Amino acid sequence: MSKFKPGRRLTPAAREHRPVPAPPSAKQGPTSTIVAESDTSVDTPPLDSVFQEHVSNPTRQFAFKCTLIFLFFRFSFLHEFVSGKIHFDAHILLLFAAISYFAAFLAGGLFGAFSEKVTWMWFAFAACMAAATVTSTWRGGSFGLLSSYLRTTLPFVLLIPAVTFTSAEIRKVLNTIGFAGTVTIVLGLVSSDFKTGRMAFGSAGSSIQDSNDYAAHLILLLPAIAFLFFGGKRNVLFKLAGLPFLALGLYQIFSTGSRGGLVGLMITGLYILRRGTPKVRMAILVAVPVLGLAILLLVPRDASQRLRSLFNSEDATQEALESKEARQALFWASVSITVHHPLLGIGPGEFMDYQAGIAGESGQKGMWHDTHNGYTQISSECGVPALIFYLAALWMTYFSLRRTSKSGVPEVSTIANILSIMMVAYCVCIVFLSQGYNFNLPVITGIATALGRLVPQMNSQQASLPAAHAA
């Protein structure tokens, strides 16, 4: 899968400093990296020299730390929350993005992910997006969306593999995403709609301000939060501290009244039952229904009634019925636009204006909403080829994660399973959301690429242990 080959021959100079596995008496656990301390008394096959060079590169290590900060702000939306409260945008996200990109470029290997087909799929999608911008019904609006995508979303496909090399670093990436999720949950507590009505993220102008978007974001982050508190050898106190965050996360998801979020939760639960360990399955079958029922009894009345309308139309409020009809109309409008503009669409971000214009020409009132479906959002705004590349990138990423989960390397397999759960959850959620250009899926692709590259290195080192001990 990767250009880093475990069996690559080394120069005499490189052989003098090659790393070897730690002896049997050395303490090793889930927190150790794959790099053992040097011991020239044991002649064993080394790790790939190029791989090891990147691991020990101090510039790369600095870039990795900056990337963790970048990821924290990207997933927590803390920068948007602060900017909304003080009415001033300090451009924190762009600052750490620029530092991370530049440091990764100086460290070398920023473009190494191009050895993977999935990277080319994401860039092909971006190329279609750029072409659709050129032919857009309003180039200015499309260019703003394209610029943001190229600056803070697409680079994750290159950045994460360029700075993340060891199992410990991959674990830190996932833990950072989980910690960002706990911060988002805490920020949600200060929302004015936390106890009444439909809950929304308390930050005006945020990209997760809408209740449905907020629910989908939390659903994506819950597996990472679970890994943060329960993954590895966590002590009992740390695990107990994680329970309130998971409970609050579920409570907030239900409080949004998002029916699409509820569907996403149910399908994610079924996926975990299919792929999880017996212990995880037991937790899903026993604890989650009890917790879910308790939370459902506590959520605001409006949100609870909205969720029940998914199963019984008699419980639906007038607002819920109108929302359902509007979503259906928006979906078919996006399909119609896709059929009439199959090659390049109408331009990124232009569905709302275009649909309103078409409706006005026929004497009808425009709906002034996005598609509420991430996939038809892409097909109608960027064309069918863009959707094909997008779906190909998703499939390749998922296939890579499933292959890694079967690698036999315990911690790497666990992380791959967590990421596949997050991916399935979000891919289901965006069936009901206009989040086709969101950063979440490219981030998962970047981590999957780093995981796939790491497995051969770990297998090579593990295979060398018996030979080293025998010698």
Features:
471 residues, mainly alpha, globular, disordered N terminus
How far the N terminus sits from the C terminus, by CA atoms, comes to 31 Å
The best one-word shape is globular
Largest sheet: none
Cα-based radius of gyration, to the nearest Å = 24 Å
Q: Provide the low-confidence segments as ranges.
A: 1-46
**How helical, in percent, are the residues?**
55-70%
Mean pLDDT: 82
Q: Care to count the β-strands?
A: 0
Number of domains: 1
- Structural class based on helices, strands and sheet pairing: mainly alpha
Order of helices and strands: HHHHHHHHHHHHHHHHHHHH
Number of helices: 20
Q: What percent strand?
A: under 5%
General description of the model:
By secondary structure, this protein is mostly helical. It has one domain. 68% of the residues lie in helices and 0% in strands. The chain is globular. The two termini are 31 Å apart.
Question: What is the topological layout?
Answer:
Layout: H1 12-16, H2 49-56, H3 58-76, H4 78-86, H5 92-107, H6 117-134, H7 139-152, H8 156-163, H9 167-189, H10 211-230, H11 236-255, H12 259-275, H13 278-298, H14 301-308, H15 318-340, H16 351-361, H17 374-382, H18 384-405, H19 410-429, H20 440-470
Helix pairs in contact: 3-5, 3-8, 3-9, 6-7, 6-18, 8-20, 9-10, 10-11, 10-12, 10-19, 11-13, 12-13, 12-19, 15-17, 17-18, 18-19, 18-20, 19-20
Quick recap:
By secondary structure, the chain is an all-alpha fold. The chain has one domain (56-460). 68% of the residues lie in helices and 0% in strands.
